[in-house]
């Protein structure tokens, strides 16, 4: 979540590439001959894309499930145990249905994001991907209608898949009358279970850190070619990255764009979620689907659509990004990340019984005041989770940034990293160094937020 996936792909290339660290390890062990190499990504590009997307996106599900579990009243599980429902049956019959809104929210975003991902397949040179086909179609043939038809098919198929999944998993009545007021008792597993959990978490952590390790090593490498570790170490890449006129302004630009977009998403996302979950207005399901559509189209296509709308002589010509893309980038970031807040807020509302609002209104509390004093505090954890995701992924936005930011003074950090990556010679190493700076900044952002709201990151999502 703190590393742009296409930057992580650069790090993975240094490890799993044909002349990467893994082949060097196998040569040292005698498994491969001195002149033998295995192109791991060449043989398994699809699996590489899947793995990198999974490692990049699983925090979405983690944050949503953390919020859902934090809001789960332990008394319900205890009541089930008192009635003889224990173990996996308790999880399947009690816990899982109650956290299903969070599971549906995170799973939906992950599926659509992975379905439309562009950066990682491009870095891994995997062309048999819908988003890459759209990219090549627009890039190679001006006016070619095929990519736009492909986008239409993608939009329709994604909307249908979302509707089916919501029908199957997202419509159950999982609201709880009471919210969690106590923390569930910690369970002490047996020795075998503890070792299994430790090894499992260690394996997941190592796999998740692999792109970060690759980027960090590349950022301090004097040279890294066909060796286990870089043959030389240097901090010059960091100095070059920060001394470059693109670096600091791009970070400030990304902060500005992402912060404004997140504020917009928080306000509009909560309103949309409330209308969808709490009202019976006609068309609310259509509104829900429309709120998810920005994730269904590749950012590249949306960016070209924005450019087409803002050409001279058009209605929105005043937003032309060739002059100043600030407003257009904020709109693009906000629209692309709005589903994160909508899904997270909707999950919180689904877990919060409407009877609490009705009770407040019966006691004379006006609807808006009941929303502000009763409902919003109960879903604040979910809203914070969605806002954090919106901000982090806006900072890491690639497609809109590459297309809409056309002048150097307006470059966000991802566009700056891409421009540095294009440099001959040490370009990859300098781009990795700036990627590390971005990674550190986002990690500090999450850390500071967690310190404000609690000593543990999980406190972000506990009501």
UniProtKB/TrEMBL annotation:
The keyword DNA-binding does not apply. Keywords: Cell inner membrane, Cell membrane, Membrane, Transmembrane, Transmembrane helix, Transport. Coiled coil: none annotated. The keyword Thylakoid does not apply. The chain crosses the membrane at residues 7-26, 46-70, 98-124, 144-164, 195-221, 257-277, 289-309, 376-396, 429-453. GO terms for biological process: transmembrane transport. Residues 1-169, 251-449 form the ABC transmembrane type-1 domain. It is a multi-pass membrane protein. GO terms for cellular component: plasma membrane. Signal peptide: none annotated. Belongs to the binding-protein-dependent transport system permease family. This is Binding-protein-dependent transport systems inner membrane component. It comes from Chthoniobacter flavus Ellin428.
């Amino acid at each position: 979540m703190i590393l742009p996936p296409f930057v992580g792909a650069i790090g993975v290339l240094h490890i799993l590439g044909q002349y990467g660290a893994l082949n060097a390890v196998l040569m040292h062990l005698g498994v491969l001959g001195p002149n033998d190499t295995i192109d791991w990504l060449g043989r398994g590009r699809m699996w590489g894309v899947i793995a990198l997307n999974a490692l990049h996106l699983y925090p979405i599900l983690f944050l949503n499930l953390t919020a859902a579990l934090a809001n789960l009243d332990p008394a319900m599980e205890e009541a089930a145990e008192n009635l003889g429902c224990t173990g996996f049956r308790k999880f399947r019959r009690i816990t899982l249905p109650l956290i299903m809104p969070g599971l549906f929210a995170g799973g939906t975003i992950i599926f659509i994001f992975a379905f439309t991902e562009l950066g990682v397949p491009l870095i891994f040179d995997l062309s048999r991907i819908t988003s890459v086909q759209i990219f090549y179609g627009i890039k190679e043939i001006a006016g070619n209608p095929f990519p736009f038809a492909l986008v239409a098919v993608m939009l329709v198929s994604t909307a249908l898949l979302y509707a089916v999944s919501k029908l199957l998993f997202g419509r159950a009545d999982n609201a709880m009358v009471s919210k969690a007021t106590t923390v569930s008792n910690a369970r002490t597993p047996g020795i075998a279970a503890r070792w299994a959990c430790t090894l499992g978490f260690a394996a997941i952590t190592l796999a998740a850190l692999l792109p970060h390790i690759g980027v960090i090593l590349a950022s301090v490498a004097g040279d890294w070619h066909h060796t286990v570790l870089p043959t030389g170490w240097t901090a010059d890449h960091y100095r070059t990255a920060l001394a470059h006129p693109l670096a600091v302004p791009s970070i400030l630009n990304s902060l500005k764009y992402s912060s404004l977009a997140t504020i917009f998403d928080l306000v509009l996302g909560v309103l949309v979620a409330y209308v969808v979950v709490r009202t019976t207005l006609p068309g609310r399901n259509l509104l829900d689907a429309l709120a998810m559509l920005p994730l269904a189209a590749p950012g590249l296509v949306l960016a070209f659509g924005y450019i087409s709308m803002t050409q001279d002589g058009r209605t929105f010509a005043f937003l032309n990004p060739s002059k100043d893309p600030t407003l257009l980038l904020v709109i693009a970031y906000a629209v692309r990340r709005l589903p994160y807040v909508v899904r997270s807020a909707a999950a919180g509302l689904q877990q919060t019984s409407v009877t609490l609002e009705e009770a407040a209104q019966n006691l004379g509390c006006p609807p808006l005041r009941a929303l502000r004093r009763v409902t919003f505090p109960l879903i604040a954890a979910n809203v914070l989770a969605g806002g954090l995701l919106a901000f982090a992924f806006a900072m890491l936005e690639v497609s809109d940034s590459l297309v809409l930011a056309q002048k150097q003074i307006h470059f966000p950090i991802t566009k700056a990293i891409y421009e540095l990556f294009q440099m001959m010679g040490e370009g990859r190493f300098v781009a990795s160094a700036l990627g590390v700076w971005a990674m550190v900044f986002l990690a500090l952002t999450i850390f500071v937020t967690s310190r404000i709201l609690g000593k543990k990151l999980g406190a972000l999502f506990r009501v």
